[in-house]
Please model this.
Amino acid sequence: MVELVPSILSADFAHLAGQIAAAERGGGTVIHVDVMDGHFVPNLTVGPPVVASLRKATRLPLDCHLMIDNPNEFIAAFAEAGANWVSVHYEACTHLHRSLEMILHHGMKPGVVVNPATRVDLLIDILPMVHHVLIMSVNPGFGGQEFIPFSLDKIRRLATLRRELGLAFRIEVDGGVAHDTVAQVVQAGAELLVAGHAVFGAGEPERDARALLEAARKTPAIPTDGS
Ligand code: DX5
Ligand code: ZN
Model:
C-alpha cells in the first residue's frame, strides 16, 4: 500500500502543527522529520525538542531521518521525545548493527538510509533487522532538489532483494518525489513516499498532498513478488 510521508523540511516552521494537520487532511499518514547536524550534511535543522512538540500536535507516526554523525548518542533522546521510526545512514554508522539494535531496544522502528552513491547490496546482512529502508534519491541536506534517475534502479534492486530473502521491510524513497517523478517511483516498488517541496512548497499542503497521493495511487505498481 502506497503511503504519503510529508517532510516538514519545506513547511512553515512557525506553524508546524497547522501545516501537519493540513498535510494529514490531504492524506499524509506518516510525518517525516529531517534531523541535520551541519557535519554529516551541510545544513542544520531540528532535534529532539521539536520532535517532543510535534508529538503533542499529531497522532501520526513520526519518522525521524537522522542525517547526523554519531547517531547512537541521540537515540535515547529521540525515544524520550516520542519518535516512532528512526533511520540512520549506512554512511554515518561505523557499527550499524549496534545502532539498529539501540533503536529497537528503545521501542522504535529501525530504518537504514543509503545515499545515492551507496549500493543497496551492502545492506544485505542487516535487512532482517530493519522496519524500513530509505533510498535517498537526492544528496541529503536540502529540500527541493532534482530527483536522481538511477535511484529507480536501486528501488527495483531492493524490491528484488526483499523478495529473494523473503523479508517484509518497507521501501521508502526521499528526495525529488513530485508530480513528474511519482509514477516512476511507485512503479519501481517504493511504498513510502517522502515529499517536502511537493507538499509544502506552494503553501497549500492539503491540496498538494491530496493531488500527489492521488497520482501515486492511480499508478499501478509492478508486482515484485512474482505474482
Ligand atoms: C533531504 C531530506 C528530505 C527532503 C526532501 O535531505 O532528507 O526529506 O525534505 O525534500 P523534497 O521532497 O523537497 O525533495
Ligand atoms: Zn529525509
